[in-house]
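In this supplementary section we document a worked example of the pipeline. Step one takes a protein sequence of length 176 as its only input; no multiple sequence alignment statistics are reported here. Step two produces a three-dimensional model, which step three serialises into C-alpha cells for compact storage. The input and output of this example are shown verbatim.
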Amino acid sequence: MKKIFFSLLMLFVLVGCSDEGKEYDGKKSTDTGSLEEQIMNVMAENKLKNQEIIDYDLKDDFIYVIFKNKHESGNTHNPDLVILENKEGKLKWVAGPEDRTGSSDTSMIFEREDISVTITLPFGDKTIKEVKVLGESAKAVTYIEHFTANFSREYKYWITYTKEKPTYEDIEVITE
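The serialised model returned by step three reads:
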C-alpha cells in the first residue's frame, strides 16, 4: 500500500511541476521557440520562407538579420537584410530587401529614421583587408557554403551601423 501511495504522490508532484501548456505573459510555453525560429517565422510571413540565415546583430530593440537571398536564375545568392523590432518578446517586421534605399554593384544601404545600415559586398576580391564607412571600420563577416564534400566557396561581406546616412563616396575599401 505504501508503494502505491508513494508512486501516486510522485506522479502528482511531477505533473504539478511541469511547464507544459502554462501561460507566461499571455503566451503558452509551447508557443515560444528559439530566437532563430521566431525570426524564420516572421520572415516566412513576409514572403521569405526557407531562407538561410547567415548572421544577425542585436542593436537596442532591433534585430538585423543577414540571410542568403537566392537568385531565381541559378544556384547563386547574395547576402541581404531584414530588420525586425523586438517589442516585449514579440518580433515585428520593419523592413526587408524591397526597402533598400540604395544599391550599387558592391554595396547596399538601408536607411531608417535613426540608423543606417551599409553592407559592402566585394565579390571575390581577396585583397581587401578593411572597409570603412564614414571613417568607421565595418564588421567583417565570413561564411562558407559547402557544395560537395570536396568543393566549397568562401563569402565575405562588411556591415556597419551608423547614425549618419552615408553615400557611396563615404565607403572606403582598403586593400593590401
